[in-house]
Specification:
By secondary structure, the protein is mostly helical. It has three helices and no strands.
Length: about 100
Amino acid sequence: MRARAIRLNEERQARRSRRRAWLARLTPRPVRIARQGGVIARRQRVQNVVVGLAFLLVQMLVWLIWGAPFLSFGVLVLSLLLVPVVMTLAFDRRI
C-alpha cells in the first residue's frame, strides 16, 4: 500500500514538472524594465530628446507660420520620413 502511494506521488510530481517545463517554454520571458545606465545609453537618451524636441519645434513652427492643414500634414509626413535619416547622419547610428 505504501509503495503504491509513493509510486503515485512520484508520477504526479513527474507530470507536474513536465507541465511546468512545457508552460515555461510557452510563456514569454520577462522583459527588462530598468533603464540602461551606461554612458552610451545616456548619450542616446539625450540625442533622442534633442531630436524629439526639434521635431516638435518644426511642427509647431509650420502650424504657427502657415497654419494650412494640408501643408502641416505634408510637413508631418516628411518629418516622419526624415527623422531616421537625420538620426543616422547626425549621430552615426547604423543598424
